[in-house]
Amino acid sequence: MLRKAKFSKRSGIPASDVVYLLMLWVWLKVDSVAMFSKDALLSFSAAKKDSLYDLLNREDLDWRKLQRLTAKKVLQANPRNKISAFVIDDTVKTRRGKKMPGVSSHFDHLTARCVMGQQIVTLGVANDEQFVPVDNEIFISEVKEQALDYKFNDNRSIAAKRYKKSKQQTKPEMVCDMIARAIRGGINTDYFLADAWFATKHILRMTIEHSLVAIVRMKKNKMKYRLITNGNAHLLCAQELYKQHVKGRWQTLNHAPYQSKSIVVELNLASSAKEPAQWVKVKLLFVRSVDESKQQASKHDWALFLTTDSQLEDEKILEVYALRWGIEVYFKESKQKPPFLFAQRSWQIRPLERKWSHPD
Fold first, then answer.
1. Cut 0.70: pTM above it
2. In whole angstroms, how far apart are CA 107 and each of 112, 119, 141, 164, 328?
3. What is the pLDDT averaged over residues 164-178?
4. Which residue from 101, 94, 82 is spatially nearest to 119, judged by alpha carbons?
5. Element (H, E) at 122
6. What does the alpha-carbon distance between residue 298 and residue 16 come to, in Å, rounded to a whole number?
7. Which alpha helices (H) appear in the chain, and where do they start and end?
8. Greatest Cα-to-Cα distance within the chain, rounded to the nearest angstrom
9. Across-strand partners of 103?
10. Most confident among 105-109, 114-118, 128-132, 331-335 (mean pLDDT)
């Protein structure tokens, strides 16, 4: 896999040995390369810590391709899973320091406040047995952005291009590019799962283009859906659909503490009024939980899901969407590991060296 990703060194310790040492650093749960070199490196190799730092600081190494090859190998080792899905989500890695370059302000939904750091957009494949991270991007917003305090050795390098895209691309654009790369790399699934923050028309168009069945949670905003009743077309938002066609018509799901109501509607995927209309048939699933002790459901708390497969059963929609929980567990566990496993997901700044590295 290292040869396929074009990892090589002209002299000194082979690149494969250095990558192996970096893997050991992660699993030994040592906080930094310096501490690993001081306490344990000599037990495995005659290499010095400079060898590890030099590889991390290389701007030409394609860590993204290495991660994708690794993910593909892991998924191929267990091909018997019946259901698999691309899952997308983001999380914020807080990074403090007045002179920390390459960070910006992001709203952290866990703490409900804005923090300085990096927002990592992650694509993975989830099935009924595992979650495998496939690709990552770091998103830098324009709010309180702190620029780099140095220049790349080569603006054509992989690290320089990824840093440029982190500032220029929107998160939906990042998602579409990651899905396309994964499919070109031979990683395929049947479904695409995302929460309401990624349920945009741009992303829904992408899933249709790649023949993926999207199952996403939708916001209760003013997005209009076209419902045809008795030959007449009505444009209604989620709240209006709930009041006119869902409220008081709940149905109990089999063997689940939920009530649901589904409606087949049409959604215009055109991004603006200037574009030709792109109406597609989608299925909206309204869901609310039931208090098992009282057998009553809340009158106000309900969630809305959308799938591009209008024939998909209600129970199947929730069954597949439940696979998205794997990425939440992945984020939680990653944040409890040394910085290498989580923060250097795409490329990142190591404050001591002020260098961007990109080991996924």
1. yes
2. 7, 9, 11, 22, 17
3. 92
4. 94
5. strand 113-127
6. 57
7. 15-27, 33-39, 49-56, 63-76, 158-168, 171-184, 201-209, 238-241, 314-321, 325-335, 339-342
8. 79
9. 146
10. 128-132
